[in-house]
Structures are given as C-alpha cells and as structure tokens.
Amino acid sequence: MTRRLLKWIAGIILVLLALPVLTIAVVLLLANIDAGRRLIEDQTKSLTGGMVSIQDLAGRFPDALRIGRIEVSDFKGPYVKFQTRSSTGRP
C-alpha cells in the first residue's frame, strides 16, 4: 500500500513539473509559425474585450519579434497607437 501511494505521489509531482515545461514549449512553437501568430493576434483582441489590438506579428519569438501595430482603446475609441519596427533592441 505504501509503495503504491509513493508511486502516485511521484506521478503527480512529475505531471506538475512537466505541465509548465510543455506549456512553454507549445507557446514558443505557436508564436513562431504564421498560424500561431494570427491566433495570438485574434486572442489578444478577444481576451481583452477588444481593448488591445495587435497587427502584423512577424519574426522569431522571443528574440526577433516584429509587431506592425499595437492599438489600445476604450469605449470612446483608440487612445494609444504604436507603430513598431522591431523588438531586437538594435538600432
């Protein structure tokens, strides 16, 4: 009985450690393919109730991500608009 309990506990701990690693791997994979970038753009708008809009994601995430436009708005309309070139930190 004790051995079985230890196996269950070890299995639970393994799953709890593996889930964050798997989640990060999936996010990195999705953010680096066109369909994943479109999903990020769509879900950002959806999850923020339309308050944040991201357009034209491109490049390699996380080190060479390019964002064409970010717009933040409220019920009155857009109040912050960013036209960006690159997030690489290089001039």
User: So how many helices?
Assistant: 2
Which overall shape is indicated by the principal axes computed on the Cα atoms?
A: elongated
Helicity level, as a percent range?
40-55%
* Number of beta strands: 3
SS-derived structural category: alpha+beta
Assess the beta-strand content as a share of residues. Answer: 25-35%
Number of spatially distinct domains: 1
- Cα end-to-end separation: 64 Å
How are the strands of the biggest sheet laid out side by side? 1-2-3
Q: In sequence order, what are the helices and strands, one letter per element?
A: HHEEE
Mean pLDDT score: 89
Tags for this model:
91 residues, 2 helices, 48% helix
Condensed summary:
Helices cover 48% and strands 30% of the residues. It is an alpha+beta fold and 91 residues long.
Descriptive account of the structure:
- The chain has 91 residues and is an alpha+beta fold.
- The protein has one domain (2-83).
- It contains two helices and three strands, in the order ααβββ.
- It has helices spanning 2-31, 34-47; strands spanning 52-60, 64-74, 77-83.
- A three-stranded antiparallel beta sheet has the order 1-2-3.
- A hairpin with a 2-residue loop joins strand 2 (64-74) and strand 3 (77-83).
- The model has no long low-confidence stretch (mean pLDDT 89).
Question: What's the layout of helices and strands?
Answer:
Blueprint: H1 2-31, H2 34-47, E1 52-60, E2 64-74, E3 77-83
Antiparallel strand pairs: 1-2, 2-3
